[in-house]
Amino acid sequence: MERVRVASLVIRDFRGWAAVAVLAALAATSAAAHASAAGSAAQVKVEKTALGPILVGAKNRTLYMFAADKGGKSVCYGSCAKYWPPLAASSRHVVGTGVKAALLGTTKRTGGSLQITYAGHPLYLFVKDSKAGQTSGQGLNVSGGLWWVMSPTGAVIKKTTPAATTTTSSTTTTGGGYGG
Questions:
Q1: Residue 52: closest CA among 138, 120, 140, 122
Q2: Residues in Cβ contact with 141 at an 8 Å cutoff, skipping those fewer than 6 apart
Q3: CA 129, 130, 134 angle in degrees (round to 5)?
Q4: What are phi and psi of 82, to 5 degrees?
Q5: How many other CB atoms are found less than 10 A from the CB of residue 112?
Q6: Which among 21, 132, 144, 157 would be 20 to 30 A from 67, CA to CA?
Q7: pLDDT digits (tens, 9 = 90+) for 9-44
Q8: Where are the domains of the chain?
Q9: pTM (two decimals)
Q10: 62-97 burial, b if ≥16 CB within 10 A, otherwise e?
């Protein structure tokens, strides 16, 4: 009878230590994930431009919202996404510098990948912006809608710079019709 009691105590102690070990492992994993996210480069930042302060990506390339997107969901796929690549996220935890953290988020694209959003707008790059500071896509009306940059407040900026607008003798156009 004494052996059964000792065996029962050993098993009970083992279960307690196993539970403690599992909890410790979960806590360590969670802490490592948060430390990694906190130490990673910002996915969305703010840069001063001729349009004012705007959202840019990790390499200081301009980010755009697409006016045709509805309800925080992207409608830009196929040839549209070829010219306007979505700003992808590897997790729902998005990091930003100079932005309002509460306005950062993600949306699920068709196929299950995540796209970064700001103030509920899915964000995109533009292939014609090949270096930092370019805003070639600002005000373009292609792929079924208008493309605009956003301010860190979450407001859509609907003005264009003289460099983004081309004037001919009878009409004024913006940009070139990419992704149409």
A1: 138
A2: 147, 174
A3: 45
A4: -65, -40
A5: 6
A6: 132
A7: 444 554 554 444 443 443 443 333 333 344 456 799
A8: 1-39, 45-174
A9: 0.70
A10: bbbbbeebeeeebebeeebbebbebbebeeeebbbe
